[in-house]
Amino acid sequence: MIEEDFSSKRKQGTVTSPVITDDTDAFENTLRPQDFANYIGQTEVKKNLKVFCQAAKKRGEPLDHTLFYGPPGIGKTTLSLILSKELGTNLRITSGPALEKPGDLAAILTNLQENDFLFIDEIHRLRSSVEEILYSAMEDFVIDIVVGKGPSARTMRLNVPRFTLVGATTKAAMLGGPLKDRFGHVERLRFYESTEVQKIIERSAGILEIDIEKEAAEKLAHCSRFTPRIANRLLRRMRDFAEVLHNGKITLKVVEEGLDNLCIDNRGLDYADQMYLKILGEKFKGGPVGLSTMAAAMGEDENTIEDMIEPFLIREGFLQKTPRGRIVTELGLSQVGVKNLLAV
Ligand code: ADP
């Protein structure tokens, strides 16, 4: 239920739509694959989605609501765009935190056209009052709104066009059961192989007309944390170094020099990651250390540490989370050149 009078505002066109147009990041959009053929990797997911698309087309129905989950920059938005293109529908993009009030979502839903895709990024961050609107919209394509205030308030049921909700989240576990259960397809996107990241780098270099040596692309791929967005970002930085400090071509030497200037090591750890391991290894003798102590020692907030720094360190085996706190592994210590404290 929406406890505000949004319908009159919508008629006057004064509801600020939190829809983000997809020209927010022109660079990313230039590099976004537009079809399955150009979307590298994620073979199993692509195979399934192609079938679901064909089935929906054959039946002339919208695609079932779809949830993508996986780390940031791994291709969730891109895949949604490809799906909507494949089915010839519009894609409206918004995000969980941008939908502050139920009325925000209701305004978007009632403005959709039949078969449109509504993409909600970071869907786990939807407020519960907004999320509740989605339940009936997803299941029965209706929403209940309250028009007016006080004693004259009355509930109105509105139909919304048959649409496809595409949700994306980095934290599937934080998604409530009632919402998760309403998705017909739930697809997990995985990290990419280095060879796949290399292909993505070479494809992006081709689009941007960047001359890059094979060995240079291979090295960059190894330092991209198996993530396309990071790979594309590093490619751009290397282009800067190549154009300003060299003759424009990205060679292995340019990449080695560039990564060094950016403080990115051979496994893709950046300055903050390296600091984290060094502080844990040297200052706290390897741990265990609690999150709040690590955050204070790093001068970062706890969310940044937990969401941005630790997942990759844990995944690569540099760090362990135990009930007593964080512990740096031997591998982690040797990665940042700190002596193995246990052996001393
Ligand atoms: P997410 O939504 O998971 O955060 P995006 O879909 O925005 O990630 O992807 C980030 C960038 O990485 C995009 O600009 C896109 O060009 C690139 N990218 C992602 N996945 C692939 C892929 N499978 N093949 C080629 N490029 C990709």
Q: What is the β-strand count? A: 9
- How far the N terminus sits from the C terminus, by CA atoms, comes to 64 Å
What is the strand content?
5-15%
- CATH class call of the largest domain: Alpha Beta
**Heterogens:** adenosine-5'-diphosphate
CATH architecture of the largest domain: 3-Layer(aba) Sandwich
Residue stretches low in confidence (pLDDT < 50, at least 5 long) are 1-24
As a whole number of angstroms, the C-alpha radius of gyration is 23 Å
**Continuous helix count:** 15
What's the number of domains? 3
Shape: globular
Query: Major sheet, described briefly?
Result: 5 strands, parallel
Order of helices and strands: HHHEHEHEHEEEHEHHHHHHHEEH
- Classified in CATH, the superfamily of the largest domain is P-loop containing nucleotide triphosphate hydrolases
Strand order of the largest sheet: 2-3-6-1-7
Report what the structure shows.
With 344 residues, the protein is an alpha/beta fold. It has three domains: 2-188, Rossmann fold (3-Layer(aba) Sandwich); 194-261, Orthogonal Bundle (Helicase, Ruva Protein, domain 3); 271-335, Orthogonal Bundle (Arc Repressor Mutant, subunit A), CATH 1.10.10. Helix content is 46%, strand content 13%. The protein has helices at residues 7-12, 26-31, 43-59, 76-86, 102-110, 128-140, 177-180, 194-207, 214-222, 228-245, 252-261, 271-283, 291-298, 302-315, 330-335, and strands spanning 66-69, 91-95, 117-121, 142-147, 154-159, 164-169, 185-188, 319-322, 325-328. The strands form three sheets. The chain has a five-stranded parallel beta sheet with strand order 2-3-6-1-7, covered by helices on one side. It has a two-stranded antiparallel ribbon with strand order 4-5. Strands 8-9 form a two-stranded antiparallel ribbon. The longest helix is centred in the C-terminal third of the chain and has 18 residues, at 228-245. The termini are far apart. Residues 1-24 have low confidence and may be disordered. The structure holds adenosine-5'-diphosphate.
